[in-house]
Amino acid sequence: MKIKIYVFGSFFLLFSLMVTACDSSQKEDVNEYFIRLHKEITSFADKKDKISHAYFTKALDSLHRRELFKYKNSGDEKYKLSSKYIEIYYYSSIDPNTFIRQLPTVYELLKLNNNRYDYITIFCNFNLAYQFEHNSPELAMQFLDSAIETERKSEKDYELPHMYHLKGRLYYNKKDYKKAMEYFDLALKTYKKDDFLYISSMHNNFGLCYEKMKRPDLAIREANIALDILNKIQEKNYAHDYFLFVVKGDLGYYQYTVKNYPAAQVLLTETLDFYKAKQEIGRDLAKCLRRLFDLYKETGNTEKMTELIDFIYTIEPQFKSIADKIEVNEIIQSYYAYTSNPKLKEFCYKLMKLHRDQDEQDKKNFADVSDVLNKHVIGSINQKHDFEIKSQKNRNKLLFVSIFALTSIFCIIFITVRNRNRKAKELAAKEKVILEKTKKILEQNIRFQDDKITNLHLNLNLKIETEKTFLEQIKKIKKSKNTNVEETVSDLFFKINNLIQIDKRNFELINESTVENKQFVHNLSEKFPALTKHELKFCVYYKLGLSSKEISVLENITEGSARVYKNRIKTKMNIGKESDLNDYLKDIKKMG
Question: Is the separation of the CB atoms in 249 and 290 below 8 Å?
């Protein structure tokens, strides 16, 4: 029973390990599916310089419909998650500067995933950290730490170097530049050797930190390292080209801070021309315009300042972000103040309105973010509560099933053991009855054989006595001369008849054991083929324990002849003279 329980326990453990292994393998496959989907999306983003924004949005929409179709046909939850995953990129492509539209989708995806798949958990937390980078740095840090912890536990390389990068930026925004550089360095060591774009980005970040730490010489060195890495890339895509001019813009600014104005002007002008050619209207362009304006103002190049202001006038309406509009309008305001232009007052009012709009937008964003966060918190609490209830139900079900299974197993084992013991007892009882019956039969057979032998001995003794009497009568007749012949003959006839009856009874007794003795005679003749039939007959007498005198009477020979037969038999059997032939023959009977 102990072996059965051990075998069952081993099987149950093996089954649990197999289920766990299968579940782990399935999660691994789903995570890989999301990674492939991410590569599919980013492949379009990398071709942004070759395809239109509308084509990129259309491609995302096509992927979204494809994943929904898979979900409707299969009912597999991973396709529902993948469709939500694409929606996040879709909102980003519509308006990269508006993160509010993404938040509900990210939270919904996080809720749907419910920590099932590490890639989605990491992605959502990383995305939220990125979105809250400027709006709520502390909240961003919480989301980022959660993403990093999940990735470390998964022992996979999904987004870890990028998350170190973002953590460095968060410290940079907090003006903790030494801590920022620690994480930029950690990211640099974590990136793969062929991640040239990100490696150059880390060197550029070192340069930004050194500039803030009033070390422009080191900032210039790091920017040049970043440029060298980018210039060595054989096949550049749009991201490589774009970042190349980001670094050039930063390097131009470092040259400006060390008053190397010619070098600064070349680098900043090249950067501006790239943004113009690519029609990149955003924060990097606004930053480049500010740096060029400050350079022209510092060098007193009024003509270039005017050209720059005219360009800003033409593109100002294209800026979507209020913050960027404020940036470029402040450049115009600074120019009007420098040139004492009467339009200065007008732009002051315009800037005041833009700041009010920015405040209103910040308030609205804050309210929207608070609303989303509150819904998420409430949803998380409800989800957690529902999850705990569901988990408790599942635990109760599992406990019930386990108890039921264990009870069933013990019942089966108990019933099996009880039935086995009962059958063993019944079998033992039957065997006992059979043994008792067999014992009684054997005892009866032994008593019966003893009786036969006793009767045989009695009959033999009777015959011997009768023969003695017969011989004495003959002697009397021989000695007596006046004997009544008729009476003597009659008496002798009676004596002879008695001897004949005794022989018949003895023959019957001997004949009864014939079946029993046949096997003995057969075994004896095979073992000692030299024995004659007559000698085999004598062996039967000796086996029965008859003496030579008794055998002489049965065979009508002298007692000496019987002894001669006995010695002859012992010689053929190679038995010593001192050995007892009767005991030897009995042993042969047992062996037979």
Answer: no
CB under 8 A, 24+ apart: contacts of 283-287: 283/321, 283/323, 283/324, 283/327, 284/246, 284/249, 285/315, 285/324, 286/319, 286/324, 286/327, 286/328, 287/249, 287/327
Answer for the pair 12, 5: CB distance below 8 angstroms, yes or no.
Answer: no
Q: How far apart are CA 292 and CA 204, in angstroms?
A: 20
Q: Which residue has the tokens 């030897």?
A: 584
Decide if pLDDT at 323 tops 70: yes
Which DSSP category does 369 fall into? H
* Whole-number Å distance between alpha carbons of 399 and 395: 6
More confidently predicted of 472 and 75: 75
Please give the pLDDT value at position 237: 87
For 22, other C-beta atoms within 10 Å of its C-beta total 10
Per-residue HEC secondary structure of 264-320 comes to HHHHHHHHHHHHHHHCCCCHHHHHHHHHHHHHHHHHCCHHHHHHHHHHHHHHHHHCC
pLDDT digits (tens, 9 = 90+) for 161-212: 999 999 999 999 999 999 999 999 999 999 999 899 999 999 999 999 999 9
555 vs 545: CA distance, rounded Å: 15
CA dihedral 176, 178, 184, 186 (to 10 degrees): -120
In the DSSP assignment, the letter for residue 378 is: H
163 Cβ partners below 8 Å, 6+ apart? 126, 129, 144, 147, 148, 151
Q: Are 555 and 562 in contact (CB under 8 A)?
A: yes
Structure-block tokens of residue 49:
């310089």
Per-state percent for the chain, helix, strand, coil, to nearest 5: 85, 0, 15
Whether 179 and 150 have beta carbons less than 8 Å apart is answered as no
d(CA 83, CA 112): 12
For residue 440 the two structure tokens come to: 């009684």
